[in-house]
UniProtKB/TrEMBL annotation:
Pfam families named among the record's database cross-references: Barstar
Family listed: Belongs to the barstar family.
Barstar (barnase inhibitor) domain: residues covered: 46-142
Native source organism of the sequence: Streptomyces luteosporeus
Protein name: Barstar (barnase inhibitor) domain-containing protein
Amino acid sequence: MTGTLPAPGLPALLAGTTPPGVYRLPPTEAPADALALATEADWRGAHLRLDGVHDKAAFLDACARDLDLPDWFGRNWDALADCLTDLSWWRETGKPHGYLLLAEDWGTFHKSAPADARTAEAILTDAVDYWAESDSPLAVILA
């Protein structure tokens, strides 16, 4: 379902030569640089910090906090899917080339709660697929 971001990495994803998807960040690329590259490419970026996240509730709390999800986010899987297919909460003035969600410390979350991580990854993949053909696609990087 998820593969490593192919060479030449994040620049190709942001330029549109690598299709949007849910990718693992190659070890040669730093998560800190990903959002800066996204901004330079006129993509809106969000940094989901998963350090210390070991279950579904903590994951959804991190999403609410770090993604600044709207008040109507119900902290359940369906509500997360709804938020990721209605990005009006993420939009600012102007239309970006795309949206990049960087989920850092994904491996720790996956080891601690593999079933929850698989569910979250499926929701992220569905959201990426939903936006894939739009003028402003969504891409997810698991770091």
